[in-house]
């Protein structure tokens, strides 16, 4: 594994790790984390490091998150452009793109803009319509008996009007059990990494959920994505439920849907062996095409 600070064309720098060595003969996989301003490369590193023998894997903190620059704009368009600049930096004409949760939104936007640069697409626990997703997530948070929350604070986080970084940290601390499968309520949510992880950044979350999510709606364009796609979802995901992944899989012509029956929002954490086997199976089928 090597760690890099990759300078982007607008002057921002990204905290990037490369797993699996730097050999250009290996195909490239870029994996995106979720939760802008909160999550980091830690989740995709844990999820996809099993592929190191066959792939060069790029994991990184998106701008506005982790150890990367806090330089705006915090937009899907800019996050998509950052992905493509990392592809160029890695020297790959085509690659596999994997995105979980909010990383799935960015991955869908990338596929619709730069489809010819993809070998395959992996989408984990995500949705295709931002407004419905935000409002349903807020309803779930406010009505679930699994958590006790401050309604005003949850309203702020899901609509992108957080007061400050501490407000963000307090909001996410309340809802961790909603991301875990039944019987695992004490598990840490996907964004949790070692205690030394960077702070939460409310400005990133606010931009994503007040500006980007209300206009994110790719339902009518899913049919235009022709690359092989694996859509993954946990049966017990309360934030991006199975119906969202079914909608995506039904809309993308060359797609496969994998529902993990004992998982919440992160099947790679909840059912690691089954997750790895399913991803390997999918990537092997892509290689043989």
From TrEMBL:
<dbReference type="InterPro" id="IPR050266">
    <property type="entry name" value="AB_hydrolase_sf"/>
</dbReference>
<dbReference type="GO" id="GO:0008233">
    <property type="term" value="F:peptidase activity"/>
</dbReference>
<protein>
    <submittedName>
        <fullName>Alpha/beta hydrolase fold protein</fullName>
    </submittedName>
</protein>
<dbReference type="GO" id="GO:0016020">
    <property type="term" value="C:membrane"/>
</dbReference>
<dbReference type="GO" id="GO:0006508">
    <property type="term" value="P:proteolysis"/>
</dbReference>
<keyword id="KW-0378">Hydrolase</keyword>
<comment type="similarity">
    <text>Belongs to the peptidase S33 family.</text>
</comment>
<dbReference type="InterPro" id="IPR002410">
    <property type="entry name" value="Peptidase_S33"/>
</dbReference>
<dbReference type="Pfam" id="PF00561">
    <property type="entry name" value="Abhydrolase_1"/>
</dbReference>
<feature type="domain" description="AB hydrolase-1">
    <location>
        <begin position="27"/>
        <end position="266"/>
    </location>
</feature>
<dbReference type="InterPro" id="IPR000073">
    <property type="entry name" value="AB_hydrolase_1"/>
</dbReference>
<dbReference type="InterPro" id="IPR029058">
    <property type="entry name" value="AB_hydrolase_fold"/>
</dbReference>
